[in-house]
Amino acid sequence: MKKLFVVIFVSIFVATGWCGAAFATGNDLATDIQRADAIRANCRAAQSTLQQVSRGDTVVRINRGRAYENMLKLMFAFNSRVAANNRSEPQLSEITASAKRGIERFRADYDQYQDALTRAIGVDCANQPVTFYEALIDARAKRVAVNQDIQNLDKQFGNYKKVVNGIADEIKGKSSS
């Protein structure tokens, strides 16, 4: 999915030779017209690809969201067991709370990304190439935010695992003594 999105951007950048955010930057008018024409020529195919990306991302988001929810439930259950065994492990609770906030942020950022992607797909790119390009840039920025959320959550889950492994090692050390 991510590769398709990158291909779209690369094709637009290569076709237009344009790295600016808008046409009205004082550049030569002929160059701006050429860039707009290049976007017009390629935008329908790009929008079709964006629709495929949107459908695929929706499935991935649902599956990832479910996995995150399941992981969070397991974390809460483990934290309860640790407390029931009269152990004080505040790190586990802190990481779990942070992961819960991260999941909420992931959901919100994904919704913003999906809205931005839908806007880009809905733009009449043949008549509004600059609007289409700007919508595409916005969707890309929002997708970067979603990716950052995923990386942060992966880090939280990794930290939780380290703490749990530390507890397991401590218990093994006590039982072998």
Structural account:
The protein is mostly helical and 177 residues long. Helix content is 85%, strand content 0%. The protein has four helices and no strands. It has helices spanning 2-16, 29-84, 90-122, 129-175. The radius of gyration is 23 Å and the shape is rod-shaped.
**Secondary structure tally, helices:** 4
Percentage of residues assigned to helices:
over 70%
Q: How many distinct beta strands?
A: 0
What structural category do the secondary elements indicate?
Answer: mainly alpha
Q: Quick summary of this structure?
A:
Helices cover 85% and strands 0% of the residues.
Summarize the topology.
Blueprint: H1 2-16, H2 29-84, H3 90-122, H4 129-175
Describe the structure using short key phrases:
mainly alpha; single chain; 4 helices; 177 residues; rod-shaped
